[in-house]
Design goal:
The chain is an alpha/beta fold and 272 residues long. The chain is built from nine helices and twelve strands. The protein is globular, with a radius of gyration of 19 Å.
């Protein structure tokens, strides 16, 4: 009972300073079990730096950080990373061109890039199941170089799930996808977000269009500082988005999805 109530993430008064540059400042944030979050902000807002802090690649200057009940500074973050899945386009550059999709997925179990660990039948079976889950069961033996951008992103999700993470971070996963591939990818994320046994999701993006119904909360950043954090339908407003992006914008909602436009554009649907 006590374990179930432990937050996935707790950030208190987080500051990151390097030299004379303040990268992140006065950040307080908590993710509770059952919540899926979006981190929204323009370029230079601190999104990537925050992810590096969460995964232990960037040390904090002050404040405190606890992930999955483990406190920064008292835990071996190398071991903790195995419980945190990460999907980022940056990982694609480190995948060997001749590595097959199933090998890439299995590499996630060992937190390796360029798999060298011994593969078992159990590993192959689980990787095959995950490739089917992301809709790529027929491409298990296809080499990385012959996968499309959208297929690669789904392979990376399967790779992240191979370690059975409790937290899955998606760092601009739709970057480089065409509109159709993006919608297919968002559809998969939506299904994953609705799975009771699935991990907590954190989606990092510039685009409100990528916020699907499964995401329950939003954190907005600007210039390394939080603008607002909380439930999606109270934080995702025209005022907060205008402060975040430094321009007067209109937020439009069509059904369960959102879109953003500059204020000079006359929206055809209800302006939030």
């Amino acid at each position: 009972m006590k374990i179930a109530s432990t937050p996935i993430l707790t950030v208190t008064d987080l500051c990151v300073v390097r030299g004379s540059t303040t990268i992140l400042r006065d950040l307080a944030w908590e993710i509770r079990r059952g919540e899926h979050w979006v981190i929204l902000g323009p370029n230079g807002s601190g999104k990537t730096s925050l992810l590096r802090v969460l995964t232990g690649y960037l040390s904090l200057t002050s404040g405190s950080l606890a992930v999955l009940g483990r406190v920064y500074g008292r835990t071996d973050w190398r071991e903790l990373r195995k419980r945190i899945g990460m999907v980022s386009s940056a990982l694609q550059l480190s995948i060997p061109p001749a590595e097959t999709a199933i090998e890439t997925v299995i590499s996630g179990k060992f937190a390796q890039l360029d798999l060298w660990a011994k593969i078992t039948r159990t590993d192959e079976g689980e990787a095959t199941r995950l490739l089917r889950l992301v809709g790529l069961g027929k491409l298990a033996r296809r080499e990385w170089i012959f996968l499309s951008q959208g297929e690669r992103q789904r392979v990376l999700i399967a790779r992240a799930l191979m370690a059975q993470p409790e937290l899955l971070i998606l760092d601009e996963p739709c970057a480089g996808l065409d509109p159709v591939a993006r919608e297919h990818f968002l559809g998969f994320m939506e299904r994953l977000g609705k799975k009771r046994s699935g991990p907590a999701l954190v989606l990092v993006t510039h685009h409100v269009e990528e916020i699907t119904p499964a995401f329950s909360h939003v954190l907005m950043l600007r210039a390394g500082q939080p603008v607002v954090a909380g439930p999606k339908f109270t934080t995702l407003t025209r005022r907060n988005l205008s402060r975040t992006f430094g321009a007067t914008v209109c937020l439009q909602r069509r059904g369960s999805r959102f879109s953003l436009a500059l204020s000079r554009t006359q929206p055809s649907s209800r302006n939030l």
